[in-house]
Amino acid sequence: MTLDSTASAPIQPRMVWGLIALLLVVTGIIYSGVLGHEFLIYDDDTYVLQNPLIHPLNPASVLRMFTRTYFRSYTPLAHLSHAIDFELWGRDPFGHHLTSYLLHLVNTALVFLLSCAVFILWKQPKAGGIQTPWSYLLERMTPTIIFGAFASATFFSLHPLRVESVAWISDRKDLLMTFFILLSAGAYLLYSVGYDTPEGRRWYLVAFASALLAMLSKTVASMFPVVLVMMDAFLFRHPHNREVWSRLLREKIPFVLGSVFVGAFSLIAVTGILRHPKLYERTTLEEVLLPVYTWTFYFLKNLWPTGLTPVYVHPPFAELVLSLLFVGIITVVCLLLLKRNAHFWFLAWGFYLLFLLPTILGRERAGIQPWADRYSYLPSVALAMLFGAGVMWVWSIAKPKLRLAGGALSLVLLGLLGFLTVRQIPVWHDTVTLFRYAVATNPSAIMAHTNLGLALAATGKPDEAIPPLEKAIALNDRYAGSYEVMALAFDKKREHEKAIDLYRKAISLDTNFIEAYSNLGNTLMALERYDDAIQEYLAAIRKDPEFFDAYYNMGIAQYRKGEASVAMEVFRRAAAINPINSDTYLNMGIIYSDWGDEDAAFAQYQKAADLGNAQARELLGPRFRRK
User: Fold this and answer.
1) 340 and 483 share a domain?
2) Which of 52, 63, 400, 546 is the most exposed place for a label (fewest CB within 10 A)?
3) Are 78 and 176 spatial neighbours (Cβ–Cβ below 8 Å)?
């Protein structure tokens, strides 16, 4: 039996929905462990708990999300999803994890359906004239195609590389972007099949709207218009006709304009950010080879998912050279297949390379990690489809016994992926567990040791925090972050003089380290050296005029110094930068109360209480409870 011979034997849609239901049940069970995880001291505070753009949820805050950049990025739709979660669930991490969990399930179903459509059109390209494109494709979903799509979706959903995106609340943007990209790609296929019909035009609008929402979820999606052109060329295989391609390119103009709009905001987000010393100094040749290493890295992790960790280290030079050879071989193979009219393979490889490109180009400018499992979430859809296409090809050419053996082998491989995923999920339960695992997996990862020290210090275990920080410094005594975190640990131990020396060491290594300036100021303030503390806060503000912590802490120092009027002005500036910090309003209320202005004090206490400040609620007493 061949693919073409089965094309004339359509099956009932209930088989499609039945397999989707089975896939969702299995995926749901395997990932259910994430629902009991905690918030992490690893960006969850930045993106959710202390994000000034998302609290409180109202029309003004929504406008802020879509008109401002935050934390070196423009991801307004991701912020909106966090804001809705926080409105519904508050500080209970269950609901925040539930949203990510459900998004992964929906993405799994979309991978299945998109794979079905791509496999059909790969063998039977059809562009335009179909009044009901959905029905047209559904009628051509043969058992071979459906089983191939099922293999693709299962490979995608159960692969342990997906765990970071699903288990880490802060990576909501990758889940959202993938959802809308898959939706847009599917809608574009339906539009192309139904081109020049009313139904086709409706699908075009869905494709454009979904693509724009994907770009607003994460700017990586701005590469999507290129994917649409690739689909025209390699999936529908439009003829080399100037008139046809002029029309196809005109159709992409709205998508390109969306990309330009989001790209502009993305550039604004990284303009003027403070530059920090590189953790690894690379040669020019290493910088040139890093993109091909990145493409090789995720490809091999999809094939052999071991040693997964939240922090990867810079590879040795030999691996960079070998990666160039690997990517070259794969590309040549795809070009040879293209000559044999196997266009799908080139399309999948291009999709994979293209969506990893922004993470490579934006690595230094946006301050992101060079490699992380989450970056592979969307690009791996292409590799999952290649896996499904391979299963489909074996099924179509093999004899019954070989089909049975191949099916059994596929189930074993997918079962192994599910097992690895189940084992990986508990790693992300809490911050200390995560970075203990990271240190054990990769003992040479400086950031893993540093983040473990930070997690231990933040959870009240400063004595346990010091050994991993000493290890980080032993690995690289020029990394300022390790000294700063060790200073925090000594602050927790009330060994302030040691902390001061460590903060100053961190600043000497990185003069843009604004957190070190601010924390040094806090230590000096604890020693009642208020003027010295204020100078450190001012040094941080000169580096970053929007740095909330420095303003807030300087307000406290000015108040304790006896300069209440100056403190009030500083707190007002702090509240303008971060309107969701309840302690700022509490302190302003205390100053008004000192001045005898109880009405103004009440207004500030009320703001603090509305934001959940327990001390403000206590000060308000029955007046707050009556509201």
Assistant:
1) no
2) 400
3) yes
Q: What is the DSSP letter of 494?
A: T
* Spatial distance between the Cα atoms of 476 and 279, rounded to a whole number of angstroms: 8
Q: Which of 393, 412, 427 is the last residue of a domain?
A: 427
Decide: 72 and 366 in contact? Cβ < 8 Å.
yes
* Distance in Å from the first CA to the final CA of the chain: 73
The pair of three-digit structure tokens given for residue 519, joined into one six-digit string: 């924390």
CATH number at residue 611: 1.25.40.10
Q: Is 73 helix (H, G, I), strand (E, B) or coil?
A: strand
Burial class (CB in 10 A: 0-12, 13-18, 19+), 69: middle
Query: Among 427, 459, 488, where does a domain finish?
Result: 427
Statement to judge: residues 460 and 561 lie in one domain: yes
- Is residue 486 domain-shared with residue 539, that is, in the same domain? yes
Q: Which of these ranges, 46-55, 175-184, 292-301, has the smallest mean pLDDT?
A: 46-55
Instruction: Give the phi and the psi of residue 140 in degrees, each rounded to 5.
Output: -105, 15
Are the beta carbons of 431 and 42 closer than 8 angstroms?
A: yes
Print the domain residue range for 463. Answer: 431-625
Q: Is there a single domain that holds both residue 418 and residue 439? A: no
The pTM (predicted TM-score) of the whole model is 0.91
Q: What is the pLDDT of residues 233-272, one digit of tens each?
A: 888 877 778 888 999 999 999 999 999 988 887 777 666 6
> Measuring CA to CA, which residue among 246, 266, 247, 248 is closest to residue 258?
266
Structure confidence by residue, pLDDT tens digits, 397-456? 767 777 777 778 888 888 999 999 999 999 999 999 999 999 999 999 999 999 999 999
The number of CA neighbours under 13 Å toward the Cβ of 70 is: 25
Q: Assess whether 497 and 615 both reside in one domain.
A: yes
Answer whether 236's CB lies under 8 Å from 125's CB: yes
Please tell me the distance from the alpha carbon of residue 30 to that of residue 36, in angstroms, as a whole number: 13
Question: Per the structure block, which two tokens stand in for 329?
Answer: 């071989």
- Note whether 518 and 609 are same-domain residues: yes
Count of structural domains within the chain? 2
Alpha-helical runs (H) found in 90-171: 93-123, 133-139, 143-158, 163-167
Task: Looking at the structure, tell me whether residues 21 and 137 fall in a common domain.
Answer: yes
Q: Are residues 80 and 181 in the same domain?
A: yes
